Amino acid sequence: MANHTYKNPLNIQNIGDPFVLKSGGKYYCYPTSGRDRGFKGWSSDNLVDWTDEGFIYERELNEKSWGFRQFWAPEVVEYEGKFYMYYTARWKEKDSLRIGVAIADKPLGPFIDVYDRPMFDFGYAAIDANILIDDDGKKYMYYSRDCSENIVDGVHTSEIYGIELGDDMITVKGEPVLLSRPEQEWELQSGRERNRLWNEGATMLKRNGVYYLMFSANFYGGRHYSVGYSTSHKPLGPFKKYENNPVLKSYREEISGPGHHSVTTSPDGTEMFMIYHIHTDAASGGGNRQVCIDRMGFREDGSIYVTGPTWEPQPMPSGSK
Question: For residue 145, what are the domain limits?
């Protein structure tokens, strides 16, 4: 008999930054998972029960591999019969974080690097790529200029940029545009402790002509890591932050650091879900994380709400078998 409920966390463990792609009636999860080896993938029919599919991108099997460690935050886009993986890694040549692209014929790979170098190099560390294919067919990438090499007013700061993507999905066009930097009170909590500020893990949604730039702020290894968003009527802004941010945050002892999320729909397409990570050990935080999912949606005024983080049994996603 099929389950009628699920409970967080799910069975994808020891990961970070979970991105979920819905394709061909199935779900595929691509998180930070392989440490310095590459990326593993998971598959599911119902968004709740996941199967470990092993490595789908391996550094040593890619002749053009330009990264040598710190493989982070893969996201996969399906476009014209191909699957494009955008990922972060540390570039051998400059010992600095950059974004690369690999392509596969199937959602579980194997993903093969397009270049023997990053997609682009603007002279600074770049992480956490997210892609939007707009209604008019134009394509955009959103990424974070990483705080490891970005100092603003004496503080190491991660900021989110946007840039147009070429129709080929593997090049960028024009110059990047600054879209978001830490400025609201909730985004400054980790900065007081670490002299570092973060806007990272961008996820772009579009609804009724409004662009919603969702992102995470604060230190990923700490309890204050949370999700907020800003809005614009143009894909490259300017964006205005939601006054009631964050929309997902820790609120109980068992849950720490909910963030770096992606968004998908239930099997029958009638419900929206946020997929995010929390710390495996809420007391110690750090890089050991696990996957959770919760319902989200839009209020009548267009604002985003998230029903979570939840810790009690929840109804299965609609249309689950």
Answer: 5-315
| Helical residues (DSSP H) of 166-219, grouped into ranges | 189-194
Q: Which tens digits make up the pLDDT trace of 300-317?
A: 999 999 999 999 999 999
User: What stretch of H or E contains 275?
Assistant: strand 272-279
CATH number of the CATH domain containing 256: 2.115.10.20
CA pair distance 62, 58, nearest whole angstrom? 7
Which ranges of the chain have pLDDT less than 50?
A: 1
pLDDT tens figures, 55-93: 999 999 999 999 999 999 999 999 999 999 999 999 999
Distance separating alpha carbons of residues 277 and 305, to the nearest angstrom:
18
Determine if the peptide bond prior to 9 is cis (ω within 30°). Answer: yes
Considering its fold, how many domains does the chain have in total?
1
Extract the tokens encoding 112. 């093969």
Q: Contact, 161 vs 176, CB < 8 A?
A: yes
**DSSP state, 244?**
T
Q: What pTM value is reported for the model?
A: 0.97
Q: Tell me if 147 sits within 8 A of 201, measured CB to CB.
A: no
* The pairing of beta strand 199-207 with beta strand 259-265: unpaired
